[in-house]
Design goal:
- The chain has about 325 residues and is of the alpha/beta class.
- Strands 3-2-1-4-5 form a five-stranded mixed β-sheet, with helices on one face.
- α1 packs antiparallel against α2.
- The longest helix is centred in the middle third of the chain and has 27 residues.
């Protein structure tokens, strides 16, 4: 029955989670997960339940991905997508396109991976208003779950700009990466407000790509292994890569914010200087060359929790050198 197929899928997923938490018996638990979900797939096929069959093959693909069997994982992931062709279900298919993108990236097929990630984002965007108005998760959880998809796409697009054959292609990849993160920012707000008011507002607004003279827009993108900074200057966009991962950056931000609240000491300055060295120092020469006097920040992640005016270069605070503005997104 339909119920039995889904119950077996749930049991298989539970075995998989147990395996991730219990390395002493992981091989046995992985085998139990595979056997259970394979049985679910057989039942789903016998009753022509395409959604259940898609789930079963998709989760089998996930199992094989976790065990490093990339080709086998890709095979099941594509079967999962095929089962949804007759009855499109973007709320399911975005997961399998995302999984397909990760697997293709693991195989080094980056162009195909970008296409898969983009299909995943398109599917997710189409159901975001429905998810936002529902009560399927706590407010603010979107980034930890589906939100990683946008960052994965941005990450791959940034890497592809390194190997672009010409300047125009590289610039297009950077713009696409920024657009992916911009979609994430809008989706996070929709998730927080639980309705599509953000999408309606964005449709009526104009982006701030066209900046005033002597103004620069600083767009940080926080990734697991590095910080990427896209800067819109009067003569075009530039990219800077800083070798600091998300975990270390967030740790420094949290310490800075905590110490900044201690009004009797200047302990925060050490952390303000460190964040300055990552976020502003790489851009200083270009800002000086173009006589920039106004910075517009579009902060991401934990950078949204600190006053960027208080960043410190060892002698002066940022606010003493530039006029500063902050906005949640280029289109927000």
């Amino acid at each position: 029955s339909h119920e039995k197929a889904y119950t077996l899928i749930s049991i298989g997923k539970l075995y998989s989670r147990l395996s991730a938490n219990d390395k002493t018996d992981s091989n046995n638990l992985d085998q139990l997960a595979e056997n259970t979900i394979t049985e679910a797939a057989a039942i789903a096929e016998s009753i022509a339940d395409q959604r259940a069959l898609s789930y079963a093959h998709g989760y089998l693909g996930e199992l094989y991905e976790n065990s490093g069997q990339t080709d086998k994982a890709l095979q099941h992931t594509r079967i999962a997508l095929t089962e949804l062709r007759a009855t499109p279900a973007p709320e399911i298919s975005y997961r399998w396109h995302w999984q397909e993108g990760r697997l293709l990236q693991a195989k080094g097929e980056n162009e195909q991976a970008i296409n898969a990630y983009q299909r995943a984002v398109d599917n997710l965007q189409s159901v975001r208003p429905v998810l936002a108005s529902g009560n399927t998760s706590k407010r603010g959880e979107f980034r930890e779950h589906a939100g990683r998809l946008y960052l994965d796409l941005a990450d791959l697009l940034l890497k592809s700009s390194d190997t672009a054959s010409d300047t125009d292609t590289a610039k297009a990849s950077l713009l696409q990466a920024r657009n992916a993160v911009e979609m994430l920012k809008g989706a996070e707000l929709e998730d927080y407000f639980r309705d599509n008011c953000v999408a309606e507002l964005k449709a009526k607004t104009t982006g701030i790509d066209q900046l005033g003279e002597r103004t620069a827009a600083i767009y940080p993108i926080i990734l697991n292994d590095r910080l990427e900074i896209l800067v819109s200057l009067p003569d075009g966009m530039k990219r800077y890569t800083v070798d600091v991962g998300e975990e270390n950056l967030n740790k420094e931000i949290d310490q800075f914010r905590s110490l900044l609240e201690k009004r009797t000491t200047h302990q925060y300055r050490r952390h303000a200087e460190k964040i300055y060295s990552w976020l502003i120092q790489p851009l200083e020469n270009d800002l000086a060359a173009q006589k920039i006097d106004t910075l517009v920040f579009i902060p991401d992640g934990n950078l949204r929790t600190i006053p960027l005016a208080a960043l410190y270069d060892g002698k002066n605070f940022l606010i003493s050198r530039y006029a500063l503005a902050t906005t949640p997104g280029l289109t927000l």
